[in-house]
Design brief:
Helix content: 25-40%
Structural class: alpha/beta
Oligomer: single chain
Number of strands: 15
Largest sheet: 8 strands, mixed
Order of helices and strands: HEEHEHEEHEHHHHHHEEEEHEHEHEEE
Strand order of the largest sheet: 1-4-5-10-9-8-6-7
Number of helices: 13
Radius of gyration: 28 Å
């Protein structure tokens, strides 16, 4: 026995991985999502997993989440990796990408991006250190038409309604409504109130009240703030105005929110709902904000989120480049269904046909047969040895391969194929055969 040290394999918390059967389903989901994004004319990009820390810090309060890059055997004097980190979302890399490739892009630039991201936070249900996000954004020079604020929820509806997932609702709000309302109340720091209200679903009214009292708000200011956060569903515009707070920014936000809701009125009732408790605490959102959750498990966390931002890319280029984007949390959705046993695994392998190798002398014939079947579009595996035919068939059965191909066992013999599900076997021509025949 070897004296080599054996490292016991153990799962790393917060880094999910799937068996081939489950991964096959995830890949089908990714194909579906990609097709949904492309059906609205969004183009794919991919950015490096690593960004300069100056770029990653452009988003604001994220330093505690970023994994920095450091080589294990790095020279103490070599600091070339010292300012690099793994990206924690796809919005900031996208903003940097647009600034860097500005002269090569056509605006409005509509992109989608599906990649892994990394966040250094405590793993728990629905929260991971490594996960896949599926982002769509529209960015433009000087202004982004409000039409896109409504188009993004429409895309999300098309994508998510095509997946077998529990009932969900996409909630919509507008940061101008919140900030304008708080300004109309005489609040000195509206962003601080937005951050507090963003915790409403976690800490409740009293928790938010306590934070706002700590920010110096009076009861006359806190009560309307909580009243605003309770407004949801139909008639939200009228309900906000009924609270009696007036400001120019508030009115602008209400008009934008009304436009988005009206534009989405043809979607099934309840799929997109105005919810004035949705705040999205990050300080770069400036207009429409989105947040979706499962209807029967709202505490699980958002499965889709985003919003409008005015100048994120402007931190990398001397141009005004506002945008609006939304992200589908693929891993958060998928992992929940896997844990609940709601994902029916796909095939163990993608092989359509396995070609038997009758003998060492006939291996060349088997290889030629495999090539012909591949040319005709069938995923084909030629068995890896000259084991007994029975063992070769057992291998195909274990892998769930639907057809086993037998090339001629002797010169002048016939090709035959076996349907593993039905147990039927008969003569076949690899040049014309199809599973339907």
């Amino acid at each position: 026995m070897s004296d080599q040290r054996v490292v016991r394999p153990t799962p790393i918390s917060g880094f999910p991985e799937w068996t081939p059967q489950v991964r096959a389903v995830e890949q089908r989901w990714l194909d579906h999502i990609r097709a949904g994004f492309e059906s609205f004319g969004f183009a794919s990009i991919e950015t490096p997993s690593v960004e300069n820390l100056d770029v990653l810090m452009a988003k604001g309060e994220t330093s505690q989440e970023v994994y920095t890059l450091h080589r294990l055997q790095a020279d103490a004097k070599d600091d070339s990796d010292a300012r690099l980190g793994l990206h924690f979302d796809l919005t900031v890399p996208f903003a940097r990408y647009v600034a860097q490739h500005f002269n090569e892009l056509t605006f409005p630039f509509k992109r989608y991006q599906t990649q892994r991201v990394w966040r250094g936070e405590r793993p728990q249900e629905g929260r991971y250190r490594e996960f896949t996000q599926c982002d769509i954004d529209v960015i433009n020079v000087d202004s982004v038409p409000l039409h896109f604020d409504a188009e993004l929820p429409r895309i999300v509806y098309r994508v998510l309604s095509g997946l077998d997932i529990p009932a969900w609702t996409l909630n919509v709000n507008n940061r101008k409504v919140l900030q304008g309302f708080y300004e109309g109340l005489g609040v000195k720091d509206p962003i601080a109130v937005i951050r507090a209200v963003d915790k409403l679903h976690k800490i409740g009214d009293e928790g938010v009240r306590e934070i706002l009292e700590g920010e110096g708000l009076t009861a006359e200011q806190i009560d309307p703030c909580l009243a605003l956060a309770r407004i949801r569903g139909a008639g939200v515009i009228e309900q906000v105005r009924a609270l009696g707070v007036v400001s120019e920014l508030l009115e602008e936000g209400l008009e934008e929110l009304a436009f988005v809701l009206d534009d989405l009125a043809d979607l099934p009732e309840g799929s997109v709902v105005a919810d004035l408790s949705i705040a999205r605490g990050l300080d770069y959102y400036t207009g429409t904000v989105y947040e979706a959750s499962f209807d029967d498990d709202p505490g699980y966390g958002s499965i889709c989120a985003g919003g409008r931002y005015e100048n994120l890319a402007g931190q990398f280029i001397r141009k005004r480049l506002p945008g609006v984007g939304i992200s589908i949390g693929l891993t958060r959705i998928f992992a929940k269904l896997v844990a609940e046993g709601r994902i029916e695994g796909g095939r163990i392998c993608p092989t359509d046909v396995m070609v038997v190798v009758p003998s060492a002398e006939r291996r060349a014939d088997a290889l030629r047969t495999g090539e012909l079947l591949r040319e005709r579009g069938f995923n084909t595996e030629v068995f890896h040895s000259t084991a007994k035919v029975g063992k070769q068939i057992q291998y195909a059965a274990k892998k769930g391969i639907p057809f086993v191909w037998f090339p001629p066992f002797e010169e002048g013999g016939e090709h035959e194929v076996k349907n593993m599900a039905q147990g039927e076997q008969g003569a076949a021509d690899p040049a014309v055969w199809s599973p339907a025949t």
